[in-house]
Amino acid sequence: MSVGPTPDAPWSGDPGLPPETRALLACARAVIDRGRLTAFRIALTECSDVELLCEVAVSQGMLGHLHQMVSAAKDVDPALVNRLARLQGVSSRRCLRQAGYLVRLLDELETSGVRAIPYKGPMWAERLYGDVTLRSWVDLDLLVAHEHMPRARELFLHSGFVDGNAFNAELMSRRRRGWGEVHFVSTDGHMHLDVHWEVTVGFSGRSLTAETLLARSRPSSLLAREVIGLSAVDMLLTSALHGTRHRWHDIEGILGMAVLVDATPRESWAALMAEARKAGCRRRVAVSVAHVCRVLGLELPGEVAGAIERDATARALLRSLRPDSLSRSAASSGRGELVHLLWVFATEDSIAAGLWHGFTRLFRPGPADWATLGLPHYMEWLYYMIRPFRLAGKWVRRLLH
Predict the structure, then answer these.
(1) Against a cut of 0.85, is the pTM above it?
(2) Span 288-296, mean pLDDT?
């Protein structure tokens, strides 16, 4: 049974997609295989609006790659070359500034005896593409063992950051019963920092703890400085978890995952899928790998093809990821958000895990509940009763909007 289009039918050739999206998909394929530069150049000729192409590239996280591939191609519209050079210049300066700040934070944490793994953001840009300017991000992310979170928070509060909300200390005290991360904002408002002590999909009961990830970490580099990095297996697992959480809505996320898939030796897939099963994310990894292979025309690893073949739910999830899933406007509607949420529930490895995921989201209170109704500790049990009604009201408003 076929689990999706063959490598000869990637999405870059889908006539139903806008020409700008097809060009960016062709760009992603050229990043993986420079032999596809000619196909990318042909796709560019179908884009008549330079500003629209640049706008879509920014929204899809592909500005840096588009600039790089356009620079490598020949006979490209000079207006596009010049516009991309200006935009990428601004983006590169921001990326380098934030990556440098992240390195300084890592040095300060190390001096304080806190081991931290830079996660997503510039670290993934360097690991995946060898260049921190080829990936965009909203905030900086770190993985820190839960026992070191109080010390790390104290350091951040003395390094120009403030708590992103009033409940950071409360969230940290709940450990696995909490939400797995806290948020900080620089005092000038220009920099955001998320510090995680676990990696999850949504609010599922399973997680990869920072302690586990630190124990399996490997030496890596960021801006030519030695730092702690995720292992190759954990890099792929966390990329799959991150992409699943966002339902693979941007091309750069698909490209990053494809780079990891392409770099994984054929003989490593059996062990990798076994690790995914142990972590409770076998279905997410299988669907993620199959999806990026289908979109960019890569060969699907045999172990992943077998996992998809044996899992009817995984096949249904894969079919539901159509080209229009790259449209963020559709996902931002009330109905789109609900479909997204149900899709994430279905990515759990079993019906029981999916139901527990939904149950947890429905009843477990968090910052929004605490901010809406400040109850004393002896009345906290009321949050569990009130939260479903608050969520019902929120979804009714979104669906009617």
Answers:
(1) yes
(2) 97
Neighbours of 244 (CB within 10 A): 22
144 C-beta neighbours (distance < 10 Å), count: 24
Question: For residue range 254-277, what is the model confidence (pLDDT) as tens digits?
Answer: 999 999 999 999 999 999 999 999
Stretch (H or E) spanning 277: helix 269-279
Structure tokens given for 250: 């941007």
List for the chain the helix, strand, coil content (%; round to 5): 65, 10, 25
DSSP secondary structure code for residue 176 in this structure: G
Q: Are 66 and 57 in contact (CB under 8 A)?
A: yes
Helix (H, G, I), strand (E, B) or coil at 298: coil
**Burial zone of 95 (CB within 10 Å; 0-12 exposed, 13-18 middle, 19+ buried):** buried
CA distance linking residue 188 with residue 202, whole number of Å? 30
C-alpha dihedral over 143, 253, 264, 309, to 10 degrees?
110
Cα angle 165-170-176, degrees, rounded to a multiple of 5: 115
Residue 228, φ and ψ in degrees, nearest 5: -90, 130
Cα gap 381→369, rounded to integer Å: 12
Share of the chain above pLDDT 70, in %: 94
Nearest partner of 165 among 183, 143, 188, judged by Cα: 183
Q: Could you tell me if 357 and 205 are in contact, meaning their C-beta atoms sit under 8 angstroms apart? A: yes
* Residues paired with 225 in a beta bridge: 222
**For the chain, what are the domain ranges?**
114-230, 342-400
What does the alpha-carbon distance between residue 222 and residue 104 come to, in Å, rounded to a whole number?
A: 11
Beta strands in 24-180 (DSSP E): 116-119, 140-144, 161-163
Q: Which two tokens stand for residue 227?
A: 């730092």
Tokens encoding 159:
């390094």
